[in-house]
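Handout, page 2. Input:
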Amino acid sequence: MSETARGTSVADDVGKADGITEDQRQETLLITGALQSAIFNSANFSSIATDAKGVIQIFNVGAERMLGYTAAEVMNKVTPADISDPQEVIARAKSLSVELDTPIAPGFEALVFKASRGIEDVYELTYIRKDGSRFPAVVSVTALRDAQNEIIGYLLIGTELKAGALQSAIFNSANFSSIATDAKGVIQIFNVGAERMLGYTAAEVMNKITPADISDPQEVIARAKSLSVELGTPITPGFEALVFKASRGIEDIYELTYIRKDGSRFPAVVSVTALRDAQNEIIGYLLIGTDNSARKQIEAEQKKLDQRLRDQQFYTRSLIESNIDAIMTTDPSGIISDLNKQMEALTGCTRDELIGAPFKKYFTDPERAEEAIKRVLSEQKITNYELTAHARDGKETVVSLNATTFYDRDRTLQGVFAAARDVTERKRLDQVLQEKNTELEGAKFVAEKANLAKSEFLSSMSHELRSPLNAILGFAQLMESESPPATPSQKESIAQILQAGWHLLKLINEILDLAKVESGQVPLSVEPVSLADVMLECQAMSEPQAQQRDIKLTFPKIGIHYFVLADRTRLKQVLINLLSNAIKYTSKQGKVEVECAESIPGRIRVSITDTGAGLSQEQMAQLFQAFNRLGQEASGEEGTGIGLVVTKRLVELMGGSIGVESTVGKGSVFWFELDSTAAPQLAADIAEPMAVPRTQVRQDAPQRILLYVEDNPANLKLVERLIARRSDTRLLTAVDGDLGIALARNNQPDVILMDINLPGISGIQALKILREDPLTAHIPVLAISANAMPLDIKKGTEAGFFRYLTKPIKVDEFTEALDVALEFAGKATDRDGNRDSHD
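Output:
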């Protein structure tokens, strides 16, 4: 909040403490409105109001007279900067940038920058008329704000600077006391208005006293205390208290009592401005005061009128007192004028205490209570408006308020008639319901927060798992297609590595998609699936793990064929998860047995029995909780605690069910059931393509340059091996983005391969730099990253990568993308005619 805004708030609080009523404020607003109208309609002041961006919205007659434009010629078209000397605007921007230690752009911003920060701003500059002539002006700038204190525009009030005529008029006015002091507060100028108001001659005060000496001492002390609290700094009573805000550049207008030479007193409104030299050092202060007696008299008269209005109210006493509701009447300003005994009981206060007191005072939310009165006055009535009454003993009562306006015999508005009915019990029941709703909202917030943390964890795990898997699958693909070819035994081993690796990649993708699994939004392709085929694949993948732990793994005989309705990939994931858990938590030389049978007609059950330690009832109750490893964290077995959660949700999404039976010390049986179905007419071939195509390269093909920016040695080595098979391509490598950019500029590669997570700048940042450089903007850049979440891919695509490949690399996919990029680069080179070949 700006200093000006804080000053206003404190002034309001002081006003309330001094007993200033709403009617008194209304009177002040009327006076202020008249002043504003006089300024806007004055031919002596150019009043220009803009919107928040500076475009002129109001251009008064004074502005038209001074500048020669009509309002229609400038409104919604130009800013005040467009009618100001441009060199002076530039100079002001530079000066303010140094003064406030922040860059300020020349233009409208330079004219209103201080005002936008709540700093009082009056300056001189040259205006340019429509006919091109110029004139010096003094301009005062004020920021216009809405009810939420947001800036909605600016007001620039200017006067033509004519050899100090304005200053002379103010200092020679008998209606203003103009008192100027030196920096220490000693009076140096005491105009005729000050002499008339205070009864001193200028000679009696100049170079002798300060304005504090002619002010009420108790009010000066009170102001020092108030400012000390408001501004959080000790302020000494005396002249410092009168000018402290102005000395800090804060606009300051306040009320205080002046004491005349004869000892009489009068209230005054005083405006304080700090006087500064060319170096912006304070050399004194100017205090301009006006006699406030007339407004005080109006306020006093208004209080008398209010009291007479309350005395003249016409009502039927018996009707009010016999009502079971708390009844009260208020005047239009919300002051209680009458009430019944129920109102006394509701508040715990006597009739005398309540009459003349603000209606809003007796409710826990005074602003809402005050709004009720305002709504009745504007809408003539309100119905079932809830408030909470606050009694003197602390008891709170929820009431339903029904109110309407009432009038005297002459149909003149007298105020508001209100009845408050106790609805505490009903509200208590509503509160119970609200608390339950709040608990649900809290639970929802916790869940959303947990989901966010989980998503961040999964994104990180995606990258960490894909990087090593890229090397495993990449080099396995290279080994499979090496020349001379591998032996049959080696081919079988490589095939097992690739089959397990690709399946591991699928499992990683699905585990990383845990949020979708839990929300039931996993895409499924449910079709007839052969359990025997799936079990054969899972057996091949699980036996190495079982053999390593010396565990006997038994599957049902192949002759039995069951088909179930399932998603083949998800079914494999379910079975592999359950087999992996069974093997992991069965002691060495134990046994794991898989069985398959029809449990009920139309339902097939698959059971996995192990001879592990078994589960207690407490453990079984927590079995399908995410990230809960049932105390196995210290067992030495690796795990995340999410496998069974994913398994359960996948089975349920496929229309199945899952369960467990366990005995401590004997082992466990995990089972799942799926709907059975008839065998399909044709069995789909689901085997992964294992062959890695070799790129056929013409012997006379020109040499192409490929740049790979990657910090992981294994990934670099993999791509080096792949590119070594291409006689038409030479590979350059860089281990960070900065080096990659330098190599790209110096060597002009045909295609660039870019990792995303690089030391120093990221791959996306490096791409941006390459695109902005004319030397490298034409080069296609392929992303190769372990950041494989959908949002990562979308971000990379939007950044402008030619292709976005995810790790682990599929060699055929990589080769195809590289060929397309090289073809694109070749066409661009032929089209531009910039390069025919590389050195």
